[in-house]
Amino acid sequence: MGTSHTRRGNTRQRIQDVALELFAEQGYEKTSLREIAERLEVTKAALYYHFKTKEDIIISLFEDLCRPIDELITWAEGQPRTLETKQELVRRYSESLRSSEALFRFMQENQATVRDLTIGQGFKERMLTLYGLLKEPDAELVDQVRCITALFSMHAGMFAMQNVVGDPEEKREAILRVATELVTAANPPSRRPARPDSAQTASP
Amino acid sequence: MGTSHTRRGNTRQRIQDVALELFAEQGYEKTSLREIAERLEVTKAALYYHFKTKEDIIISLFEDLCRPIDELITWAEGQPRTLETKQELVRRYSESLRSSEALFRFMQENQATVRDLTIGQGFKERMLTLYGLLKEPDAELVDQVRCITALFSMHAGMFAMQNVVGDPEEKREAILRVATELVTAANPPSRRPARPDSAQTASP
Amino acid sequence: MGTSHTRRGNTRQRIQDVALELFAEQGYEKTSLREIAERLEVTKAALYYHFKTKEDIIISLFEDLCRPIDELITWAEGQPRTLETKQELVRRYSESLRSSEALFRFMQENQATVRDLTIGQGFKERMLTLYGLLKEPDAELVDQVRCITALFSMHAGMFAMQNVVGDPEEKREAILRVATELVTAANPPSRRPARPDSAQTASP
Amino acid sequence: MGTSHTRRGNTRQRIQDVALELFAEQGYEKTSLREIAERLEVTKAALYYHFKTKEDIIISLFEDLCRPIDELITWAEGQPRTLETKQELVRRYSESLRSSEALFRFMQENQATVRDLTIGQGFKERMLTLYGLLKEPDAELVDQVRCITALFSMHAGMFAMQNVVGDPEEKREAILRVATELVTAANPPSRRPARPDSAQTASP
DNA sequence: TATGAATGAGGTTTCATTCAT
DNA sequence: CATGAATGAAACCTCATTCAT
Question: Where is this region: Disordered (chains A, B, C, D) (predicted)?
């Protein structure tokens, strides 16, 4: 029982890992099943034992990714629609991104591919749902942009800042702070349920 | 003078147009030369008369795109490094995007492809240069994020807001406003060369 | 004793049934073991417990089919070579087809496959033997055609008449009648051992 | 200008010839494009220059085959619906089969394949049309069988008689004669428009 | 009696590219 | 300025088959 035959039921997992790695690195179309198989030291046919098609591999990755997002959405829908909730939503989202960095990078960099990938639609819907949870129903155009930018900046942030020096965790916190500011600015006091001690006038 | 013989010599341009359209719609890898040729009602071989390789087509598109950016960089480098310059830089950049929406969409959605496309590097460098022009040399991490987000939001904005109703030009202005705010926030008075008439206190 | 555990030991039979069904429906090559296994809700490997190869499955079907034919041949060879015997041979053959309709349909529609299937040769030989039992040794070319057509019509008849309305059993009888006529015509009185009461002259 | 580069525009034809040969010999599914290409000493990709898919090759063969049949149908539909017309129809059909022997053999032996080949339906319809031209509208079941058998015997005849010695043309004539007899028997005098000099009584 | 995991060979198809005309 | 014909490489996928458990 050496090293290579002991891998019991973890092949499926290993395929997902390698696939994600390569998809993120080179893109979905440019990554061939041969490549994945070679890196795993199995045959292409073995991949097809675990996944019915190439698309199936990526779908399985998406599913893993979407679960936490769905939970987040469920949570937010059960909360009062206050600024605090929105800020917390952004915070939690930022955190869940941390564990799925590669996949988010993949999606960010392969939107054209993702778009017609069936499941891509599902992801887009979730983004729209999050967006709907961040913005007020009657928000002005600028505030809509702020909310969208907040979400996008969290997605794009990590790899857009690869050339910026610094501790990854610090970067994430900086990104989170900017996103939070955007959301906060998009929910001005005048639009929030009035509070007696807030006497500010809305910015024009 | 029918419809099909009037196109004299403009074939090269037509190839670029159709290619960009398809690249933006489906991605670079998923768009085949056959498809481009068919839509133009010429043969694949005809494409090779005008472009040496498939990559050459995309390179030519990049070159057209980069020219205005280079001009913008040249202009900015000749200006004083004030907040006003930065705001104007953002404004001008936003405007030049307007005419190259498809190509920017393509780049935004096909980063993985663009990345190892030789010319992709060139584009990235230009982005870094713009970034360098927006941020102060000793900017804090948060302010770096603000500058990057400003740039990104302009790229991503247009198609991220496809499902938002409204006049495109109004949207662009909203995006520009948010980007400007981000840049402004990233260049707080305390960091700018002090001016006698600015009495604001820096935000902590 | 649920539904799925009652099948004790009859798996082999069930494989044959499903395989025949699919072979007849789609052809041998186009039917994969995966398909058979799925329809049976077992794994492909289970098929290999019961049959050594895919061809083995079809061979086993042929063997079941050939047994009655062999009995028929044995019977016919023990009879006097009269027209009555031939007519009875056709009648009995028609009857034995009834219970193997699917397999005959398969053979009729997949001759190209059957041809190089080892056992296919065996079937062809049996057909030639039957043919030899129907025709007179010195039969004219036309009479040879009649005999061959008689056999073929019985094979092809059933599914060639799928779009003809009517009771299956009635159809079979009609086919049998035509086949009998052909055999009768192929064995004219002049060639049969003369009988005192038959005064017909041979047809030109 | 040797032998191998002079083949100007005949490649398409050569593909059809070789494909038909191999399809008839081994069946459609068992014949790979590699095989066809190798026999032609071209690459597989060359086949795809001339035909969009493997199925396309066979479709083109069918089209060539169907043309004469369609002409025959058109002709027959313009004739009076007499026994003589039907006999002539059979005669002409037999003749047109002569030049398409391989394709008919292919169809006869690969019905399962042909069945779901789109164009297969078209062929079946033509057969039904021919059948409808041979039989009287209110024909009895037995007469319907006779007409079907007449058609089938012509299809199957040639290769079913491969082991029968004799001149091919003589064989064809013998088959034609049997087919004609079947059609004649299927159109008894009592069912034909009465003619003053035909005093026969109908057979029961 | 059956399964889970894997393989090797081969299938059809598509692609970017070339070159004589 | 463009085409018709072809190529070589590689893509995704399927199949029959094996074997340890």
Answer: 185-204
